[in-house]
Write a structure and sequence with these properties.
With 346 residues, the chain is of the alpha/beta class. It has two domains: 195 residues, Rossmann fold, CATH 3.40.50; 75 residues, Trehalose-6-phosphate phosphatase related protein, domain 2 (Alpha-Beta Plaits, 2-Layer Sandwich), CATH 3.30.70.1020. Helix content is 35%, strand content 16%. The chain contains eleven helices and twelve strands. The strands form two sheets. The chain has an eight-stranded mixed sheet with strand order 5-4-3-2-1-10-11-12, sandwiched between helices. Strands 6-7-9-8 form a four-stranded antiparallel sheet. Helix 5 runs parallel beside helix 11 and helix 7 runs antiparallel to helix 8. 46% of the residues are buried.
Length: 346
C-alpha cells in the first residue's frame, strides 16, 4: 500500500508577508528573487541580474577572510575525531546533496556523473548507516545518476521522497512515498513548456523539468543575455502567483509556494525511520547549495546532528563544518565507513 503524505498533511500556502520563514543568514538577493513573481519593473530585473552575477561561481567574491571563515566553519576532515566524539553513542543518519557534493558541477547538467569510486563509497556508506540523497533534481533523474537501490531518494528539493527499492537493512519501507506538491504537477508542466518556448532563442539556456519544480540553467548563457533571460522568466511567472523563484549555483528554481523544502524532507525521513523523537540520533547533512541551508537550519534548531557545507569560498551558512569539493566529501565518507567497520569488527 503506497503511503502519500498529502493524504495526512495538507500543504500550507506561505503568505506573501510572512517573514517567519526568513533565515537570518539569507541575503537581500533572495528577497529580490521572490519579489520577481509579483513585480515587473525594469529596476527589479536589473537587481535580479545583479543577484545572478553575485551568486555565480565566476563572480563570487567574499568579504569574509578564508582564515577567519575556516575558524568558524573548520574542515570536517580536520575535525573528524571531534565529530565522532560528539556522535558517540548515537545513531548516525546520512543526508547527501548530489550536484556539487557527490558529483562536480558541470556545464551540462545532464552529464553530472558521479565517479565509480564515489558510487562504491556511497554503497558502503549505506551498509553502515541509513543514507538519503536529497537533491533539486527530479527523483528519477538523480536515481539514474546514482543507481543504488538501497538508498532513500528525495528529489525536487524534497518534494518527491521514496524509500529504498531493496538492499537496505534500515526499515526497508518500499511503500514510503511523500509527494506534498502533487496538485501542482499540471502547473509545473505548463510553466516548463512555456519557458522552453520563451527561451528558445537564448543561446545556452537549459530548461529542466524536475517534476515538482522547473530549473532554468544559465551556466552556458552569455552574461550579456542574462537580462533577456530574466525578462523571459518574469513574463511567464507573473501569471503563476502560486509559484516562487529561488536561486542556486547558476540555476534558477521555480517551485510551488508550500511550506516544504530540504529541511522538511530531512524531518520527514527521520520520522519515517522511527527517529522523530529520539535523542540518540545524529543526522549528518552534506550539501553545497543555498537550498541545503534549510536542512542545516533545521539541524541547528533541533540541536541535533550537524551540517557540512561544500564550498571553496567563504559564505554565510548554518552549517558547522566545511569541505571544499566532492573529492573531500568522498574522503570524509570513506573515513566514516572505515570507522564504522572497525567499530563493528568488520
Amino acid at each position: 500500500m503506497v503511503r502519500f503524505i498529502e493524504e495526512n498533511t495538507k500543504p500550507e500556502k506561505i503568505e506573501t508577508g510572512d517573514k517567519s520563514k526568513t533565515d537570518a543568514t539569507l541575503t537581500v538577493k533572495t528577497k529580490v528573487l521572490q519579489d520577481l513573481i509579483i513585480n515587473n519593473g525594469g529596476g527589479l530585473i536589473n537587481s535580479w541580474v545583479d543577484s545572478m552575477r553575485a551568486c555565480s561561481p565566476t563572480h563570487l567574491k567574499s568579504s569574509m577572510k578564508q582564515s577567519s571563515w575556516l575558524t568558524e566553519h573548520p574542515s570536517a576532515l580536520d575535525m573528524f575525531d571531534e565529530i565522532l566524539n560528539v556522535s558517540e553513542g548515537k545513531k548516525i543518519v546520512m543526508f547527501l546533496d548530489y550536484d556539487g557534493t557527490l558529483s562536480p558541477i558541470v556545464d551540462d547538467p545532464d552529464r553530472a556523473f558521479m565517479s565509480k569510486e564515489m558510487r562504491r563509497t556511497v554503497r558502503k556508506l549505506a551498509k553502515c548507516f541509513p543514507t538519503a540523497i536529497v537533491s533539486g533534481r527530479c527523483r528519477e533523474k538523480v536515481y539514474n545518476f546514482v543507481k543504488l537501490t538501497e538508498l532513500y531518494y528525495a528529489g525536487s528539493h524534497g518534494m518527491d521522497i521514496k524509500g529504498p527499492e531493496q538492499g537496505s537493512k534500515y526499515k526497508d519501507d518500499k511503500s514510503l512515498l511523500c509527494q506534498p506538491a502533487t496538485e501542482f504537477l499540471p502547473m509545473i508542466d505548463e510553466v516548463y513548456q512555456k519557458l522552453v518556448d520563451k527561451t528558445n532563442f537564448t543561446p545556452g539556456a537549459n530548461i529542466e523539468n524536475n517534476k515538482f519544480c522547473v530549473s532554468v540553467h544559465f551556466r552556458r548563457v552569455d552574461e550579456k543575455n542574462w537580462s533577456d533571460l530574466a525578462n523571459q522568466v518574469r513574463s511567464v511567472m507573473k501569471d503563476y502567483p502560486e509559484l516562487r523563484l529561488t536561486q542556486g549555483r547558476k540555476v534558477l528554481e521555480i517551485r510551488p509556494i508550500i511550506k516544504w523544502d530540504k529541511g522538511k524532507a530531512l524531518e520527514f525521513l527521520l520520522e519515517s525511520l522511527g527517529y522523530a523523537n529520539c535523542t540518540d540520533v545524529f543526522p549528518l547533512y552534506i550539501g553545497d547549495d543555498r537550498t541545503d541551508e534549510d536542512a542545516f537550519k533545521i539541524l541547528r534548531e533541533r540541536r541535533q546532528g550537524l551540517g557540512i557545507l561544500v564550498s571553496k569560498i567563504p559564505k554565510e551558512t548554518n552549517a558547522l563544518y566545511s569541505l571544499q569539493e566532492p573529492d573531500e566529501v568522498m574522503n570524509f565518507l570513506q573515513r566514516l565507513v572505515e570507522w564504522k567497520q572497525l567499530r563493528s569488527g568488520a
